[in-house]
């Protein structure tokens, strides 16, 4: 088998960071299968336009024939599954796409991979890996003093998004247990960094602040998320791929819990220093409390002890260094954001935030 990997969803936020790092580090060729939903963006991969080590394929993980053809043609040594519908708020508005891609799509992908893997020779069969990229949201919500999620925390998903990811995790688990497919699953906390779609909290706040628009904080803003710089997540995935024990689950997190309001205030302080408003006011004056997300999970926190002790991975960035890089990236790439903030994105922002009592236009 050659040194090719099949990445799904590699035009999205985390997938494109993963593909860029993989190719730029000379780790081999990536076949990148992406449906290019509203969240997929080939601008993220423009630097690989002329690379012989990046093969982009526009398609759906649920298209089993296409996946079978790609596997047969490229003979990858691993499949890394990032493809998903990923936004909780959108899953509340319209869960169906989440069921289709995250559950049915993952099922068809697994079926195609099972057939491919089953036909490999013994050595290739032993070294092949299917790595499924999942989320800490499958574990549900923590109380203020509860211990962080470990790999044995029972699943208790609360949104259509997390329920669909939980279902896909179970399917992956069953394909290992029943068919022996060499699977690995990672459950990671909230990522942030370059190429993050501006419907999510951190890029939305940066974008709205620079545009002088309200900075919407759901409910009381005291919900807690555990933030990890996206390149650290990608490094963790590479580490699990190379050294993870087949059939195992690895939690990935930044040991970095913050309330939403603290995140928003920190971003305002950074922007005040880096790009002061013309009227001399603080960006914090744009903070606007809006109606809460239905079923909003209060707290996520990952215990990343297993991946640290068994595989020696820990984050390279602190939150301070990671958020500094992130804000600088958004300031230097406002064109990237402006190219996205059109069409489907504008409709989403208008409908979603007017329902929360705030006009963003
Ligand atoms: P994203 O929404 O930015 O990107 C998803 C990508 O998948 C897009 O390029 C989209 O076009 C593609 N896609 C969607 N449906 C597809 C289909 N049916 N077939 C092929 N491609 C399809 O998401 P992200 O934030 O990069 O997340 C990537 C993965 O990581 C997801 O599985 C998500 O659940 C998981 N995850 C995300 C976070 C986070 O903080 N963003 C944290 C932990 C885990
Ligand atoms: P988000 O980036 O959507 O990630 P997730 O829901 O997967 O954790 O949201 C992060 C947190 O920020 C979450 O608690 C919801 C909150 N939030 C706001 O307060 N305002 C916003 O406009 C958005 C998009 C999110």
Task: Describe the overall structure.
The protein has 13 helices and 12 strands. The chain is of the alpha/beta class and about 350 residues long. It has a domain at about 5-195 and about 225-255 and about 295-315: Rossmann fold (3-Layer(aba) Sandwich), CATH 3.40.50. The strands form 3 sheets. Strands 3-2-1-4-5-6-10 form a 7-stranded parallel beta sheet, with helices on both faces. The mean pLDDT is about 95. Bound molecules: nicotinamide-adenine-dinucleotide and thymidine-5'-diphosphate (TYD).
Explain briefly what this protein structure is.
Its EC number is 4.2.1.46. The protein has 361 residues and is α/β, with parallel strands linked by helices.
Jot down its keywords.
single chain, 361 residues, alpha/beta, Rossmann fold, 7-stranded parallel beta sheet, 3-stranded mixed beta sheet, 13 helices, 12 strands, 16% strand, binds nicotinamide-adenine-dinucleotide, binds thymidine-5'-diphosphate
The name of the CATH architecture of the domain at 4-195 and 227-254 and 296-317 is 3-Layer(aba) Sandwich
Question: Which parts are unreliable, with pLDDT below 50 for 5 consecutive residues or more?
Answer: none
Q: Structural class of the secondary elements? A: alpha/beta
CATH class of the domain at 4-195 and 227-254 and 296-317: Alpha Beta
Please name the fourth-level CATH homologous superfamily of the domain at 4-195 and 227-254 and 296-317.
NAD(P)-binding Rossmann-like Domain
The third-level CATH topology of the domain at 4-195 and 227-254 and 296-317 is Rossmann fold
Instruction: Determine the fraction of residues in helical runs and give it as a percent range.
Output: 40-55%
């Amino acid at each position: 088998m050659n040194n090719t990997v099949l990445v799904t969803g590699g035009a999205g936020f985390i997938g494109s960071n993963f593909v860029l790092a993989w190719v730029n580090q000379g780790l081999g060729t990536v076949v990148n299968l992406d449906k290019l939903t509203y969240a997929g963006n080939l601008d993220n991969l423009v630097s690989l336009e002329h690379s012989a080590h990046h093969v982009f394929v526009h398609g759906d993980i649920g298209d089993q024939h296409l996946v079978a053809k790609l596997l047969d043609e490229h003979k990858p040594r691993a499949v890394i599954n990032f493809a998903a519908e990923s936004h909780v708020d959108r899953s509340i508005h319209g869960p169906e796409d989440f069921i289709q891609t995250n559950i049915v799509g993952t099922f068809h992908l697994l079926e195609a991979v099972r057939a491919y893997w089953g036909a490999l020779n013994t050595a290739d069969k032993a070294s092949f890996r299917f790595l499924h990229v999942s989320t800490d949201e499958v574990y549900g919500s923590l109380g203020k003093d509860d211990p962080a999620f470990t790999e044995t925390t029972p699943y208790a998903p609360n949104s259509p998004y997390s329920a669909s990811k939980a279902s896909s995790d179970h399917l992956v688990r069953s394909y290992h247990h029943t068919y022996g497919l060499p699977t690995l699953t990672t459950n990671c906390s909230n990522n942030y960094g370059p190429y993050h779609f501006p419907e999510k909290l951190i890029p939305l706040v940066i974008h709205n602040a620079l545009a002088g628009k309200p900075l919407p904080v759901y409910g009381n803003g005291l919900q807690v998320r555990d933030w990890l710089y996206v390149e650290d997540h990608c490094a963790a995935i590479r580490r699990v791929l190379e050294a993870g024990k087949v059939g195992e689950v690895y939690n990935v997190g930044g040991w970095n819990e913050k309330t939403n309001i603290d995140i928003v205030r920190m971003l305002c302080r950074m922007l005040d220093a880096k790009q002061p408003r013309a009227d001399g006011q603080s960006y914090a004056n744009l903070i606007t409390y809006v109606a809460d997300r239905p079923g909003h999970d209060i707290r996520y926190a990952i215990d990343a002890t297993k991946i640290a002790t068994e595989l020696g991975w820990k984050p390279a960035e602190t939150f301070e260094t990671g958020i500094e890089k992130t804000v600088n990236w958004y300031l230097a790439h406002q064109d990237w954001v402006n190219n996205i903030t059109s069409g489907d994105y504008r409709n989403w922002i208008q409908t979603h935030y007017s329902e929360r009592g705030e006009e963003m236009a």
